[in-house]
Design goal:
Length: 307
């Protein structure tokens, strides 16, 4: 990447003043992930390339697509007369001529009328999230289940500048797979159904956080403080939880199979219905108030009672 350096220290290219940064637009369309933006930000500190340029160099997105959203998108959104959705997909280099030809033939053979963009998502040419983005911004047709990524994007923008206090954030269902957010404070946040798969959140504070149905599988959660947090039906499979603090946490029906729990503390926690291995070869702590599933015996599992 250093071969392309030109010392431009701007954080993200914006399509126009006071509008969404290009990086956020690309994340909201589902064309790139937040973890890819995170990596691009790290590389941007070493070389001054714009975010879009770095993403293209990695091969994560086409240059034509970056140019479309950087140069044309705002004008197209503001135009009162809108064109068919296919026009925008083609302009953004999201569909090529061969794919359009295939979809056109498929559409002709459908017994019931199927919209072109639905066929495109069924064939895997375009993500549903990408279609939802175009429909919402061009035609004011909104998917009520669509997830806003503005808040997580703002967090990474601030985190890249050294900020770590993100208490009481709304991160429900945010796709934050593989991200790094070490030493942050997300206490009091709503992270229900968040996807932290393979994320690194070590040494962070997650006190009184709603993590119900969250995916924390394979995440690095060393010395994270989860005091009084909710993990109902959360997936913690194969997570690294060394010295994690689960005091008074609710872990009903959580999946902890394969999780590394060396010196993790479950004092006063509820583990009813949780999936736990029957034996441990290292120290895991609990106390007299810790509640377990009827089929799990902490003494037989070699857990250590603190009181």
């Amino acid at each position: 990447m250093n071969n392309f350096c030109n010392k431009d220290t701007s954080f993200l290219t914006t399509t126009t003043a006071n509008k969404k940064p290009l990086g956020l637009i690309l994340v909201e369309t589902g064309l790139i992930s937040i973890s890819q933006v995170e990596l691009a930000l790290q590389e941007q500190k070493e070389c001054g390339l714009k975010i879009g340029e770095i993403l293209v160099l990695h091969g994560w997105i086409k240059q034509e697509t970056v140019d479309f959203f950087a140069d044309k998108w705002l004008k197209l959104v503001q135009q009162p007369e809108k064109k068919p959705l296919l026009y925008y997909f083609k302009e953004a280099a999201l569909l090529d001529e061969d794919q359009i030809a295939i979809l056109t033939k498929l559409q002709q053979f459908q017994q019931k009328k199927v919209r072109f963009h639905n066929l495109a998502t069924e064939r895997g040419y375009i993500k549903r999230r990408t279609v939802d983005f175009f429909l919402a911004n061009l035609f004011n047709i909104y998917n009520p289940q669509a997830i806003s990524l503005v808040k997580p994007f703002e967090i990474f923008k601030k985190y890249s500048k050294g900020e770590t206090d993100f208490r009481k954030s709304d991160l429900r269902q945010a796709p934050l797979m593989g991200v790094t957010l070490k030493n942050v404070n997300l206490s009091g946040s709503n992270c229900r159904k968040i996807n932290f798969n393979s994320a690194n959140l070590s040494n962070s504070s997650f006190i009184q956080v709603n993590l119900s149905r969250a995916d924390l599988s394979k995440a690095i959660l060393t010395q994270v403080n989860f005091t009084q947090s909710r993990f109902k039906k959360a997936n913690l499979q194969d997570a690294h939880l060394e010295r994690a603090n689960f005091t008074k946490a609710l872990l009903k029906e959580a999946n902890l199979t394969g999780a590394y729990l060396l010196k993790a503390d479950f004092s006063d926690a509820c583990l009813e219905g949780a999936q736990l291995p029957s034996e441990y070869s290292y120290d895991v702590y609990y106390n007299k108030n810790t509640r377990f599933d009827i089929n799990f015996d902490p003494q037989q599992a070699s857990w250590i009672r603190k009181d």
